[in-house]
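Tutorial, part two.
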Amino acid sequence: MAFLLCIVLPFIVVGWVSAYVALNTIKEEVGSTTLQLVKQNHVTIDKTLSAVNDRTITLLDSQFFSNPEGYSFWTGIDTLNEIRQADNILDSWSTGGTEYAIYMKNIERRATPFDLSYKTKGFKYLDGFSGGLPDPNVSLMDVSGAGALRVMPSGSGETTISFMRSILNPRNYNEVIGLLAVNKIEVMLTRDMVSVELPAAAGAFLFNTSGELLMSTGSGGLNPGELGKHLEPDVPYGYIFAQEGGEEWLYAYSDSSRFHTRLLYKIPLESITGKLIWFQRLLVVISFIFLAFVLTFVLYMVRLVVKPVVELVSVMKIYEPGKKLLLSEEPLRQDEFGILQGSFVRMTRRLDHSIEENYGMQLKQKEYELLMLQSQITPHYLYNTLDSIYWYALDSGNTEVGEMVRDLSMLLRIGLSRGRKMITVGEELEHAQAYTRLQTKRYPDTFEVRWQIDDALRDFETPKVIIQPLIENAILHGVRGMDGEGEIRVSAVQEDGILRFTVEDNGHLQVDLEELKAILEEEQSVKGYGIRNVHQRIRLHYGEAYGLAYERSGDGWTRAVITLPLRRRGPEPLGTD
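Running the prediction step on this input gives:
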C-alpha cells in the first residue's frame, strides 16, 4: 500500500501532468510558429498588392491628373480608333498575367460603333451604372479613390479577383467619373500563397473586407460558418485550436489594415504533431511497462528482504539478556541476511556470557568491599596506637619523639586517605611537610626547606602523594651530604587555569636531564619508579597535556615541575571514617 501511495500514484500523476503539459506546450509552439508563417505570407501578399496599387496610381496620374488632354480623351471616346488606342494603353500596363480595364461613365452620351458590354479588359462605358458589372462593384465608385479587392465574373464564366479603385474627376475631386480594375490578380497572389507548403488536408484562405473568399490553396475546405465561430473579428491576428468533424484543427490568421484582407490557415493538428504525439504515447506505454516491472521487482524484494527481516525481528522481540535461545549459529541463508542472523546469534551468546561475567564480577566486588571494610579496621587501630605513643612521649617529656610520631601518623593518614585517589592541595602539602620534618630530624643540619605556597590554592584538587617523591629524590640525590649548605624550594602557584608545583634543589651533583626524561617516558625501567609513578598517575587523571617534567633553572638548580588543571575539590562521597 505504501509503495502504491508513495511511488505508483505519484508516478502516474506526474506522468499524466507531464504528458498534458508537454502536449499543450507542443500545441502552443506549433500555433506560435504557424502564426509567424501566416504573418510572413501575408506580408508577401501585401507587397504584391502594394506593387499593383502603385501601378494604378501611376496609371491614373499619367492618364488623368498630370495630363489635361487625358481627361478629354477618356471621356470622349466614340470611334473605333479611339477604342483601340485606349485598349493599347491598358494592354501596355497589363503585366504578369493581369488585365487592366477602365470603366468610364458615359457623361457625354457617346455612341460607340459596336457594343462594348462583352469586354472584360480594356476600355468600356458604364451606361446607366450597369454595363455588366455587379452592383457591389459599381457601388465602389462612390468610394473616394481607395483601392479594394473584389470577386468578379470573367468572360469564361469563372470568377476572377480584381483590384479596383475609383477614378476621380481631376477638375472636381468630389466627383467619381469611372472605375479602374486590375483583373486576374489571383495569378500573382497564387504565386505568393503556394510558396508555403501546407500539410495534407490543410488549406490557406484569403478574404476581403466583405468576408468574400477571394482565393484558396491546399486540399482543405472551409465552411462559411467557421469564420465567425472560431475567429475573433476585432483581433488583428492570432490562433486557436478547435474541434471540427471529430478532429482537432489549428486556425491561424492575420489581418491587413492596408488592403483590408484576412489570410487564414486551417491545418489539422495531427498532421503537424502526429509523430510527436505518437512518440509521447509510446513513452507513456513504456513508462507503464517499466512501472509494472518495478512493481514486480519490489514484490520480489519484499519476499526476499522483508520476510527474513520480519523473522529476525520476531526473534529479537522475544530475546531477553541472559535468556537462552535455541538458535543455531549456522546461517540458514548464504546472503547478507544469513550473515546478519548469524551475527545476531553470536551477539546473544556474547551478551549472555558478558552478563555471566558481570554477575561474577559483582560478587567479587562485594567480596572486595567487605575486605576493604575489614582492612579499614587495621589502620584505625594503628592510628589509635600511634596516638597513644604520641601522648606517652609527651607525658614522658620526650617532645621530639612525640613530634616524630605525630608526623608519621599524618603521613600514614594522608597517604591512605580512606582509599581516595584525589585530595586537596592543603592535604598534599601537609603530607609533604610532615615527610620533610621527619627527614630534617634524620639528617640534622644538612639542608633547609623553603616553602612558597599560594594559600588560595589549598581547596583545589590534586592526586595524592605527588610532591613527597620529588622531595625524597631532592634529598637522596641532591642535598643529603652538603653539611648545611643544601636548600630545597617547594612552591605552589596558579597561572592561566594551570596549577603548578615546583621542587628545586641546589644539589652538588649535576643531574642528567635526558636520563630523567627517558625514565618518565618508560624508556628505562630499572630505576626511577617513584617519579614515573607520579608522571603516569597525573596523565591517567588529566591526559597527555599534563604531568611531570625536569629542567635546569637559571642559577643551575635542578627543578621538577608538576602541571595540573586547576579544579576545585568536589563534595566528599558518603562513607565511613
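Residues 573-577 have pLDDT under 50 and may be disordered. In part three we will examine how such features are distributed along the chain.
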